[in-house]
Amino acid sequence: MPAEEQPFESTEEDVSRVRMPNIKEGEMFGIADQLLGASKIKVMCEDGVSRVGRIPGKIKKRMWIREGDLLIISLWDFQPDKCDVRFRYTRTQAVNLSKKGKVPKSLDVF
């Protein structure tokens, strides 16, 4: 019987399937702080800086971003105080990443 239960168990593979920030491309974790309107959002980044983030239409049309969501953001090269939102984690994904220790301590509110 244990062979039947195995597909339902949570394993390390679940975390590896979730998208992680690519540091080489300037991506990092962030928490949605405040919705500003006009596809803009205030994001608290893992380096402790609060930035204005732009939500691209591709993400805006598919998923809603609410305050307190864990995000992957990429910094702008020419304006380091601004960023683009690349990915939003669901609540379950964020809690699982937090349990595994993948989320930095400065952002760990889950």
Automatic annotation (TrEMBL):
It comes from Candidatus Methanoplasma termitum. Keywords: Initiation factor, Protein biosynthesis. Pfam families: eIF-1a. This is Translation initiation factor 1A. One of its GO terms (molecular function) is translation initiation factor activity. It comes from the Archaea. Residues 16-90 form the S1-like domain. Seems to be required for maximal rate of protein biosynthesis. Enhances ribosome dissociation into subunits and stabilizes the binding of the initiator Met-tRNA(I) to 40 S ribosomal subunits. The keyword Protein biosynthesis applies.
